Amino acid sequence: MNVQVKRARDAERTAADILHAAQRVFSSHSYSEAGVRQIAALAGVNPALVNRYFGGKEKLFEAALDEALDVRYLVEGERADFGTRLVSLFIDGRPDGPHINPLPMLVMSTSDQGAREVALRLLNKKIMAPLVASFEGADAEDRAAQLVAVATGFFTFRLLLPLEPLVGEVSPGMRRWLAQTIQAIVD
What we know:
Elements: H1 3-28, H2 36-43, H3 48-54, H4 57-68, H5 72-75, H6 82-92, H7 102-108, H8 113-134, H9 140-160, H10 172-186
Helix pairs in contact: 1-2, 1-4, 1-7, 4-8, 6-10, 8-9, 9-10
């Protein structure tokens, strides 16, 4: 293997490691509390590499959130089980990848104006627009916003202001309620 190909692969792996570490940190800390040094330490790299690969904390946040916001799993599946798939995705994670929930990243970005603007732009582009396009009817935009509001509310009270019934293992009854609520919005 030539040296340039190895360096390119190492650079790709390093960037991916930084990105995944950032997703974990931004999912568990407010934007203002999340530090580049903390992210670099979790990724096992020198903090200077964060700036080299991503151009700073805000651009890293944007890349991390952009990758985490993937609505295809939901809009490409059967509409009849949308609510169940979304609840499973929120609580159990994606079946094809790591458990990175973008909702805490969105909610916890509100402490910083720049991060909030990035989050709102990506939320509209990567979640709202595809949901509106996949829903039918004149009220598609309202229903997409309702779905985002219910999901955000659930995770606000699961992670940020933890209510006992929402912490830890989510009961079958709570899962069923959330899936039915979401499905009613979709239908």
